[in-house]
Design brief:
The chain is mostly beta strands and 116 residues long. It has a single domain (12-115), classed as Jelly Rolls. Helices cover 0% and strands 64% of the residues. The protein is built from no helices and 10 strands. Strand 1 and strand 2 (8-21) form a beta hairpin. It is globular, with a radius of gyration of 15 Å. The N and C termini lie close together (11 Å).
C-alpha cells in the first residue's frame, strides 16, 4: 500500500507485535523505527490461566518521558479484551511497553501500520 506525497510515495507496511508476559517486569512490545511513524490499530490482551489479572501499558517518547496509556487495566479470567477504541499514532523511536500484575497469565498482540 502506498500513499502519495509531494516528490514521491509513502511506503506502508502492516505488522504485528506479540509477547507472552512471563514476568512482572515492563516488557517492550513495540518500538517505532527511527525512520517511520506507526498507527496502532489494535491491542488485544488475552488471559489464559483461568485467573483474572491486570495489565499496564505505557508509551515512552524520544526524550524518555513515560506516559500511561492503561493503568492497571482489568482482564477477566479466560477472556480477550481490545484495549483501543480508536487508532493510536506512535512517532519515530517511541516505545510501547506492557506489564502484567502476575507472570504467566497474559498474552498481548498488537496490529500496526508503519508509514515511512
Amino acid at each position: 500500500m502506498f500513499l502519495k506525497r509531494r516528490g514521491g510515495f509513502l511506503a506502508n507496511s502492516f505488522k504485528n507485535a506479540k509477547v507472552d508476559l512471563t514476568t512482572t517486569n515492563a516488557t517492550t512490545l513495540y518500538t517505532a523505527p527511527n525512520t517511520a511513524r506507526a498507527i496502532i490499530k489494535s491491542i488485544l490482551v488475552s488471559e489464559d490461566s483461568g485467573n483474572a489479572d491486570t495489565i499496564t501499558v505505557t508509551l515512552t517518547n524520544a526524550s524518555s518521558a513515560v506516559f500511561s496509556l492503561f493503568k492497571v487495566k482489568a482482564v477477566a479470567a479466560n477472556t480477550t479484551i481490545e484495549l483501543l477504541t480508536a487508532p493510536l499514532v506512535v512517532t519515530e523511536s517511541e516505545i510501547i511497553e506492557v506489564t502484567a500484575a502476575t507472570a504467566g497469565r497474559l498474552h498481548v498482540v498488537m496490529s500496526i501500520l508503519e508509514v515511512s
